[in-house]
Amino acid sequence: MKVYFCGSIRGGRDDAHLYLRIVQKLQSYGTVLTEHVSSAELTDRGEDAVAAGDKFIHDRDVSWLQQSDVVVAEVTQPSLGVGYELGRAIDMKKKIFCLFRPSSGRRLSAMIRGADDGVLFVVKDYSEDEVENVLEEFFNKLKRT
């Protein structure tokens, strides 16, 4: 299984420690195409070191999105990029699982929460201490369908 993980990069890296836990758990289900999102060395400047620039990043990531079997997004930290990726994934008819932590004090965008159809697009409120269990529950259900 190929998993595309979405998390904020240029929108803020406050949750990078959590992204690492998520990616490590996702790796037990298959190949995580975007494991770099969880790197502690990646700052909110993004992949500025990529000589080919933003177009290269966009095209590479859209290609990975096309290759993926499932998309998992941590959506607590608002991110234009994550929102864009989710929109593209919807158009590609990908199975999408969004994770949101209400304890952050933020309110999830109505465009994300309202897209939850319980089948192709699922939003799950969770707390940080239960992230691995929430992912396990989702992937167990995914295997049964």
Ranges with pLDDT <50 over ≥5 residues? none
Derived structural class: alpha/beta
Tell me the fraction of residues in β-strands, as a range.
15-25%
What oligomeric state do the depicted chains represent?
Answer: single chain
Helix content: 25-40%
Strand order, main sheet: write it out: 2-1-3-4-5
Number of helices: 5
**What does the main sheet amount to?**
5 strands, parallel
The 3D shape can be described as: globular
**Topology as H/E string?**
EHEHEHEHEH
Q: What's the count of strands?
A: 5
Mean pLDDT: 94
Distance between the termini: 14 Å
Any idea what the radius of gyration is? 14 Å
Structural notes for this entry:
This protein has 145 residues and is an alpha/beta fold. It is built from five helices and five strands, in the order E-H-E-H-E-H-E-H-E-H. The protein has helices at residues 16-26, 53-67, 80-91, 110-113, 131-144; strands at 2-6, 31-32, 70-74, 95-100, 121-125. It has a five-stranded parallel sheet, with helices on both faces. Helix 4 (110-113) links the parallel strand 4 (95-100) and strand 5 (121-125). It starts with a strand and ends with a helix. The mean pLDDT is 94.
